[in-house]
Design brief:
Blueprint (H helix, E strand, L loop, with lengths): L10 H10 L4 E7 L5 E7 H8 L4 E4 L26 E6 L5 E2 L6 E9 L10 H14 L2 E14 L3 H6 L17 H5 L2 H13 L4 E6 L5 E6 L2 E2 H21 L3 E3 L12 E9 L7 E2 L4 E2 L1 H12 L1 H8 L21 E3 L6 E4 L6 E4 L8 H17 L24 H9 L2 H7 L1 H19 L4 H7 L4
Parallel strand pairs: 1-6, 15-16
Antiparallel strand pairs: 1-2, 3-4, 4-6, 5-6, 7-9, 7-10, 7-11, 7-12, 8-9, 12-17, 13-14, 16-17
Helix pairs in contact: 3-10, 6-7, 8-10, 9-10, 9-11, 10-12, 11-13, 12-13
């Protein structure tokens, strides 16, 4: 098997390190609906003797809980009536990496199968794999990069919990967008994240400050879409772990406060399986017709797939005018006010989807983009005129501004059901229903402040 790069381990390489004592812990993990790594920490010898050859198991409720890990009703795959049985964690040896921020620890990521070895269709990694298989049938591969922002605080996670996540001290006290001084103030944390993620097999570009106090972004080089999603999930978890080691905390909430939200802009392009250009007409020096159809499809399905781009109640509070988060479904050449920004030429030609926030599940968002783009190609959708100027002032259709609207559009989308399957759509519609019900039943601090005495 070809390694993703020289910093990844083969299975034989991992087993050699276990036998020598260099590795004594193996994290076996998959990505859940909320984009989190879930799984087990196994002793190295147990992994080598009992798991390396055939994987392990875990309860199927892990794909049927809310964000607080409560079992909830409405999921076809997992319930009290079905007995909460097991899923198989199928090891993907291409994902083996050392986690150098943890002592003697390696990680391997997994696909999910039922005990009869059929895939768990609702698994985020399975959902993306299905769209990548569709892409491969056309003779293409998908390349992607995710730009994930976070806000860092001087408080530990435990202190933040005790304070109800309020009155925390951000790592910077003012806007440090592109500021070298601002990133230097947080460099011990940023440097550790960069270097440990490089050691874990990721190709790190760099770090920069952002607008909200304490807000930063660490960028990674684009890669195969599945590799990018795998790396995104590992990085997001590891950054929290490394922050905790520094006595700090980070949040990936899309909208932590009334200031700028945290985004996850996703860059995507297609290539021929031989690496040839698909999105660019080299002879004429222009975008290819196929590229235009792909972008047209992503735009045409933005509302259909917004639930996968913005999977939480909080996600929708990021969509505000003049916020660098898009409100209008439009495209523009290097225009950051639009939902889709086209950048680059030749091999660098790619689309940037600016709808997702930092809370996005990368597998689901990439699957949605590819499904939308393939819809545009297969139906030869024409690309609407470019929006020039301020998209916030446009009267073009808007990105759904509430989870309820996104849920209803996703549930009723024939395109989503054809591309993803009824089982997947119904599963994630139920996830949205669970969150909406919990939100509707909650009395917020805002209500108490406004109503306790004055109403």
């Amino acid at each position: 098997m070809t390694l993703r790069n020289e910093r990844h381990l083969s299975m034989d390489g991992l087993l050699t390190r276990i036998r020598s004592g260099e590795v004594d812990t193996v994290v076996v993990a998959f990505t859940d609906m909320q984009g989190r790594l879930q799984g087990k920490r196994l002793h190295g010898r147990y992994f080598a003797d009992h798991v390396a050859g055939h994987g392990t198991e875990g309860c199927n409720y892990l794909l049927a809980v809310d964000v607080e890990m409560n079992t909830v009703d409405g999921y076809a795959i997992s319930s009290w009536e079905r007995g909460y049985g097991d899923m198989e964690f199928v090891l993907d040896p291409a994902t083996i990496r050392l986690l150098t921020h943890l002592p003697a620890t390696a990680m391997i990521q997994c696909d999910l199968e039922w005990t009869d070895h059929t895939p768990v269709l609702q698994s985020p990694r399975s959902i993306l794999r299905r769209q990548l298989d569709r892409t491969a049938q056309h003779g293409w591969s998908a390349l992607a990069g995710t730009e994930l922002e976070f806000i860092a605080f001087r408080d530990t996670f435990e202190e933040a919990w005790d304070r109800g996540y309020r009155d925390l001290t951000p790592a910077n006290q003012y806007n440090v967008d592109y500021s070298i001084v601002g990133t230097t103030r947080v460099e011990p944390l940023l440097r550790d994240i960069r270097n440990h993620m490089y050691a874990a097999g990721m190709n790190v570009e760099g770090a920069k400050g952002e607008c909200n106090p304490g807000q930063h972004e660490i960028g990674f080089l684009y890669d195969d879409a599945l590799v990018t999603a795998d790396n995104h999930a590992v990085y997001k978890t590891a950054a929290k772990e490394i922050a905790a080691q520094h006595g700090m905390s980070v949040t990936y909430m899309a909208k932590y406060n009334q200031r700028e939200g945290s985004s996850c802009h996703i860059h995507l392009s297609l290539r021929g399986r031989d690496g040839s250009l698909v999105f660019w007409d080299e002879e004429n020096g222009t975008r290819s017709k196929l590229y235009d159809h792909f972008v047209a499809g992503v735009l045409a399905t933005t509302a259909d797939f917004t639930l996968l781009y913005s999977p939480n109640i909080n996600s929708y509070k990021r969509f505000a005018s003049a916020s660098f988060a898009p409100t209008t479904i439009a495209w523009g050449e290097d225009n950051r006010t639009c939902a889709v920004r086209l950048v680059g030429k030749g091999p660098a030609a790619r689309m940037e989807n600016r709808v997702p926030g930092a809370d996005v599940n990368p597998y689901l968002a990439l699957a949605a983009m590819i499904a939308g783009g393939l819809h545009g190609i297969e139906n030869e959708l024409p690309l609407q005129d470019e929006l020039v100027g301020n998209a916030y002032a446009s009267d073009l259709p808007k990105v759904p501004h509430h989870m309820r609207a996104a849920r209803d559009t996703f549930a009723g989308s024939a395109i989503a059901r054809a591309a993803l399957g009824d089982e997947v759509v119904d599963h994630y519609v139920n996830m949205a229903e669970v969150e909406l019900t919990a939100y509707d039943e909650t009395v917020t601090d805002w209500e108490l402040r406004r109503g306790f005495e004055r109403l």
